[in-house]
What we know:
This protein is α+β, with helices and mostly antiparallel strands. The protein has helices at about 20-35, 50-65, 70, 120-145, 150-155, 225-230, 285-290; strands at about 10, 40-45, 85-90, 100, 165-170, 180-185, 190-195, 200-205, 205-210, 220, 240, 250-255, 265, 285.
Amino acid sequence: xxxxxxxxxxxxxxxxxxxxxxxxxxxxxxxxxxxxxxxxxxxxxxxxxxxxxxxxxxxxxxxxxxxxxxxxxxxxxxxxxxxxxxxxxxxxxxxxxxxxxxxxxxxxxxxxxxxxxxxxxxxxxxxxxxxxxxxxxxxxxxxxxxxxxxxxxxxxxxxxxxxxxxxxxxxxxxxxxxxxxxxxxxxxxxxxxxxxxxxxxxxxxxxxxxxxxxxxxxxxxxxxxxxxxxxxxxxxxxxxxxxxxxxxxxxxxxxxxxxxxxxxxxxxxxxxxxxxxxxxxxxxxxxxxxxxxxxxxxxxxxxxxxxxxxxxxxxx
Length: 316
Ligand SMILES: O=C(O)CCC(=O)C(=O)O
Ligand SMILES: [Fe+2]
C-alpha cells in the first residue's frame, strides 16, 4: 500500500461558530475533495462530547460480555424497517460480529437492554448527538454537490429510519481475521466511532487503506443514496472491518438514512442539465432496503451468493 495514502481529517468547529464563513468554506472544500477522491473522510470537533463516546464504549464492553442468552432477550420487533435489537452472525458466515441495533429514542421498535444500568440513556444521548452532527454533514454535502440551499434537508426530512449499531467483533484467530467483508452502505452516509484497536479499512484504487484510530475522531463514509442522486459524482465507498488480534473490537456505527417512501434517482443537475445520461434507474428507498435485507444485516457482503447492491439499478 502506498504509505502517503491517508484519509483526510476535517475540523468541523467552524460550523459551531456563527458567521465563520471562511472557516466553513475551507472545510467544505476539503470535504468535497475527499468525497470525490475517496468517498470517505474523518471529522474532529464534530459536537459529540468525548466523555459520552468513551462512556458508550465502556458500556458496550460490559454489555457484550454478558452471556448470549441475556443479550438475546433484546429480540427484533415485528414491523420494524430492519431487524433490530441484538444480533449475532451465525458461525458459518465469514463475517464475525454481534451488534445491538436501535432506531431513534422513543421508537416503538426499539428493543434495548436494561443492563448495564444507564446504557440505554447513553445510547439515546449518542443517537441524539449523531443526528445533530448528521444535520451538519448533510448541509455540507448538499453544498458540496451544488444543490439549492437546504435541498437535502427538505428531501430527507424524516429521521425515523436512522439507526445506530453498537458492534463488537471478536479478536482475530491465527487463521482468519474477517470482521465484515468489503461492502458499500445503502444509506446517505455513515458515521463510525471505532475504539483504539482500529480495524476499519477503505478501498482506494485497489488498495485497502486502514483508518488509523485517533481519540475523538469519527470516520464518515458516503452511501449509495448520495452516489445515485449525484449520478456517481460522489462515490459510495467500499470498506471492510479487519479484526485485530489483541482483543475484541468495539464500534458505534450511525446510519444517516432515508425514509422508505422516498424516490431515489440521479438528479437533473447531474444529468440532463449537463448533458449526461443517468447511470441508475430510479427506485423507492424501501424497496432497495428490503432487497438488501435478504441478508441478516445492513449491507450485502456476508454471503456472496446472496449479495445485492446498487449495481442492480445501474443502467449499462
Ligand atoms: O464497525 C465498523 O467500524 C464499521 C461497520 C460497517 O461498515 C457497517 O456496519 O456497515
Ligand atoms: Fe459499512
